Amino acid sequence: MTSHITESHTGVTESELSQQVRALVPAMTAWRRDLHQYAESGWVEFRTASKVAEALSQLGYQLQLGRDVIKAEARMGLPPEAVLREQEQRALEQGAVARWLPAFSGGFTGLVATLSTGRPGPVIGFRVDMDALDLNEQLDEQHRPFRDGFASCNPGMMHACGHDGHTTIGIALAQVLMAMRDQLCGTIKLIFQPAEEGTRGAKSMAEAGVVDDVDFFTAIHIGTGVPAGQLVCGNDTFMATTKFDVTFTGVAAHAGGKPEEGRNALLAAAQAALGLHSLPRHSAGASRVNVGVLQAGSGRNVVPSQASMKVETRGATNEVNEFIFQQAMNVVAGAAAMHGVTHEISLMGAAQSSTPSAAWVRFIHQQAEAIPELVKIVDRQEAAAGSEDATYLMERVKARGGLASYMVFGCDLSAGHHNERFDFDESVMAVAVKTLATLALNIRAFREDA
Ligand SMILES: O=C(O)C[C@H](NC(=O)Cc1c[nH]c2ccccc12)C(=O)O
């Protein structure tokens, strides 16, 4: 760990950093709107990742790409091969930087950019995510991205969770830190992650070892209901979650003439959906179940032989989620048995719960006090629980003796996350860049027992 570092505060003035960031505001807006317009869902962020690679390589960062930062077998919820190929081609047509694409081909759309200062000091890791949601953007004049001509041009893909902002923050942070590298020590690692939605990407980056040398780690999010001007230094409300698909396979038959020869997959799925939503709870904390998709059958007079469901379980702790998930497996198997059909389960995504490191949260809190735009700084929030696969990276850092956190930068939103009218006040990006740069510039001042 890094508590032995005793050099004094770097004395970086807020105004110098402010100037750097202010100069980048027009570029940040342009970046964000470009990424918003060419929204790419999880594992197909070919254009996005290539643009990030091009920008950071030009800045002089050392890059690790694709398979070097993503463990193939640990990826979850990957689209079919044909979709990956088609989306890569589309990215090329939409201006992806061709020379980087081979590294990302086949669903390896992540990268890590490293700045080694050459001066002794800790490794600081910042994680941003790059993927859009599977959602059609609202196309009307009331929605600013449409009005101002930067609504998504990719059907069924929309940045409705702010990851276009996160990616932009990562790029701008890279610029600021490179410009101020003489005032930095140690090593900065900027982690650009694919497929956060559905909690599918982070595990593969954790298992590739991208944070194994990281002493101080934070992931970030904007919005999530936190008011503008507010910073949450150590968000700790993430639920553990398991995402899975179920397919039921029965036997089709004449619904009038020989129904007894059929095995009804639709009824098995319906039975399972009701059973899943009536699972017993756990005394150790909150839990959730959601059957988000159920599709079955092929025709009115045919006993349905096929059904599929997309399901998620969540729990306040890993233990609660595991309990709910195991119950869910029993329900699915039971429903299949009732109707004499077979079933298959595919794991599509997962995340853990994780608690930020108290000493690092304290440091973030102290450093954030110097950012004038932050009018309220809190360590944690009681919030409607969501999930985050950055928890895999947090847990990996902590398991190796590093400190980890998850910061949320509040901002005004036009609609809730995952809504087709979602948009955010872009000024939050500069605030985030300033705050994260401050952490890196002042890391020498960190004290375990401060
Ligand atoms: O499980 C997922 O697919 C991830 C997705 N994650 C988010 O929406 C991020 C998120 C939700 N709630 C919060 C609160 C703070 C930061 C980030 C978030 C979710 O919970 O559905």
Automatic annotation (TrEMBL):
Keywords per UniProt: Hydrolase, Manganese, Metal-binding
Pfam family, one: Peptidase_M20
Species, as recorded: Chimaeribacter coloradensis
Binding site for Mn(2+): C161, H163, E197, H221, H418
Superkingdom classification of source: Bacteria
Residue ranges of every copy of the Peptidase M20 dimerisation domain listed in the record: 244-332
Cofactor: record remark: The Mn(2+) ion enhances activity.
Biological process per Gene Ontology, one example term: folic acid catabolic process
A molecular function GO annotation: dipeptidase activity
Protein name: Peptidase M20
Manganese recorded as keyword: yes
PANTHER family cross-referenced by the UniProt entry: PEPTIDASE M20 (PTHR30575), PEPTIDASE M20 DIMERISATION DOMAIN-CONTAINING PROTEIN (PTHR30575:SF3)
Cofactor(s) demanded: Mn(2+)
A GO cellular component entry from the record: cytoplasm
